[in-house]
Write a structure and sequence with these properties.
Blueprint: E1 2-7, H1 11-18, E2 22-27, E3 43-47, H2 63-74, E4 82-86, H3 92-104, H4 110-120, H5 128-138, H6 143-152, H7 155-163, E5 170-173
Length: about 180
């Protein structure tokens, strides 16, 4: 199965085409889309701004916001696609797709998942604050944060992400090969 990432302007098209089991929307002050067939149990709406450091007056990613999202993602069975979107489909949604893949593949190497994201989208630039918080919650000992930071350290990727108004929808697999924990340090 697949984890789809989309921008707000393409979320209805991707939802109709892929028929995901669950949808996660990450938006700031923008109204959340109404996606037919996706009630509260199948559509998680997270009000969070795309910021990488706490800012006064902003909906900063924090554990109180990210924990319910992770609980929602835990209920995804991976028999059907997952769809994650934010305003541009570049940062918050990419971070959440990474979190979902790590959550459901606890033995997978986080850098392999980050590499799949990098390969799938030239503009993917995951929100490192969301990833870092999820890393703590999932007990990944900094491996998720390190993999996301390495992806974001690519200056060409950062330039493309900043220049893009929206990213093209993309997907990553829901299943990744497992590696033994002791092999990862």
């Amino acid at each position: 199965m697949k984890i789809w990432v989309s921008s707000l302007d393409k979320v209805h098209v991707i939802a109709a085409r892929t028929r995901p089991e669950r949808v996660v929307s990450l938006l700031g002050a923008t109204p959340f889309p109404d996606i037919p067939g996706y009630d509260e149990g199948r559509h998680h709406r997270l009000e969070v701004d795309d910021i990488r450091q706490p800012e006064d007056g902003r909906a900063t990613p924090n554990a109180a916001r990210i924990e319910p999202m992770i609980e929602f993602l835990k209920r995804w069975r991976r028999e059907e696609p997952l769809l994650v979107h934010c305003w541009a489909g570049i940062s918050r949604s990419t971070a959440t797709a990474f979190v979902a893949a790590c959550l459901h593949n606890p033995e997978a190497d986080e850098s392999d998942i980050a590499a799949a994201i990098a390969h799938a989208s030239p503009t993917a630039y995951p929100n490192t604050l969301i990833v870092s918080i999820a890393d703590d919650i999932l007990g990944r000992r900094g491996r998720m944060a390190d993999a996301a930071a390495a992806l974001c350290a690519d200056e060409a990727r950062k330039t493309r992400a900043i220049a893009a108004e929206t990213g093209e929808p993309f997907f990553i697999p829901a299943h990744f090969d497992a590696r033994k924990i002791e092999d990862r340090g």
